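Teaching assistant's notes for section 4

Start the section by putting this record on the projector. Ask students to predict, before seeing the second block, whether ABC-type Na+ transport system, ATPase component will look compact or extended. Collect guesses on the board.
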Amino acid sequence: MITAHDLHKAFKTKTGTVNAVQGVDFQAHDGQITGLLGPNGAGKTTTLRMLYTLMQPDRGEVRVDGIDARKDPAAVRRALGVLPDARGVYKRLTARENIAYFGELHGMSRAQIEQRTRTLAQALDMGDILDRQTEGFSQGQRTKTAIARALVHDPRNVILDEPTNGLDVMTTRAMRGFLRGLREEGRCVIFSSHIMQEVAALCDRIVIIAKGQVVAAGTADELRAQTGEDNLEDAFVKAIGSDEGLHA
Ligand SMILES: Nc1ncnc2c1ncn2[C@@H]1O[C@H](COP(=O)(O)OP(=O)(O)OP(=O)(O)O)[C@@H](O)[C@H]1O
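Reveal the predicted structure now:
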């Protein structure tokens, strides 16, 4: 389970201060997919970066399985699998070597790494790319490699920044199936997207972020009820006050 409480983050730039995240609060539960939905620049990536300890919040608290990220960031990292916005796949290594390298960093044995790689490569349909050097990989192939690498240590909690960004229809469908599998295994899954249809297709709970704040949260039915709109698209538009993010 992942809890964000009153998160704030501002960036000082040459032209002034950007208040990227201004009091974000939500909970993501085990056995559920929670979608962070919001238009470009809403603060999704900054929120996720604070959840996975890459960035310290200016204010507020992150807890993963009850562990305070400020007090024990290493334990939080062990409990998390993260697909960051910059996929950062090592291009001199094969996909298998990328996965194994992360396994080694987590202190896993060679046998454990081999067994996990087999499971993940099958789930992500990576058979034909596993032993190819990742230089020249397509976006989808890089994303799959980065996801397998993120999950090698079998984390209970999974955070994915725009996992279907740039993927074709078939790969997106396969990715959705994979994320549902993580939910069925009882994991806590959070993913961000700026596309409403993407979130609607997958998520048990939706957290809508606009201008650094949570403007609505709940199941699709709850969001419709909260906004007084019959369809989710209208509910989303009403919650964020514009129609950005309605179309891929
Ligand atoms: N390192 C930084 N320095 C300055 N401003 C930043 C920095 N990181 C993010 N921002 C600003 O903070 C705001 C939120 O950005 P963020 O990347 O979190 O949005 P997002 O919801 O993930 O958007 P997108 O859907 O476009 O990826 C934006 O205005 C962005 O320009």
